[in-house]
C-alpha cells in the first residue's frame, strides 16, 4: 500500500510460545550508518528513545562495558527511569545490552537484548532484535505492560528523526 511505502519506520514484534524471548524486526528507511549512529550518539538517542518524549540522560557510555541510565519525562509530568549495561557495541553491526525498568518494587528484573543491524539496501536498514527475560512470567509481564506500543512509538520517533 502507498501508506506503507511512506512509513519511515516499522516494527514487527513476535512473542514465541513457551519461551522467555521477544523477537523484534525494525525496518527503517535510512542508511545503516545513520541508524546505528542514532542508537550510539547520546544527543540523537535522547531525541527518539523515550517515544519522542523529553529524555533526561543521566548516563550514556555507549561502548563495550559501558552503561546507560535515562529518565523518560511524559507530558503529564511523570518520570520513568530505565538503565542497563552495554556488553558489546560493534560499529554498524550489533549492540548487546541489558534493559531494566527502575520502577519495579525490587531491582534486578533485567532483560538481555541483542540487536543486529543489516543494510537491506543503501537507504533501508533492518534491526533484528532478540530480547530474553529471566523467566516466561517476566517476559509476559513486560508484554502486558504495553512494551510493544511504547517500542513502536520510539521506532516511529526514530523514523521521523532520520527523515530530517
List the helices and strands and how they pair.
Layout: H1 2-6, E1 9-14, E2 21-28, H2 32-40, H3 42-48, E3 54-60, E4 67-73, E5 79-90, E6 94-101, E7 111-121, E8 124-132, H4 136-144, H5 147-163
Antiparallel strand pairs: 1-2, 2-8, 3-4, 4-5, 5-6, 6-7, 7-8
Helix pairs in contact: 2-3
Query: Beta-strand percentage?
Result: 35-45%
Strands side by side in the biggest sheet: 1-2-8-7-6-5-4-3
Shape: globular
H/I helix tally: 5
Number of strands: 8
Low-confidence sequence ranges:
1-5
Percent helix: 25-40%
**How far apart lie the N and C ends?**
23 Å
State the secondary-structure class. Answer: alpha+beta
* Rg over C-alpha atoms, rounded to the nearest angstrom: 15 Å
Describe the main β-sheet briefly: 8 strands, antiparallel
Mean pLDDT, nearest integer? 94
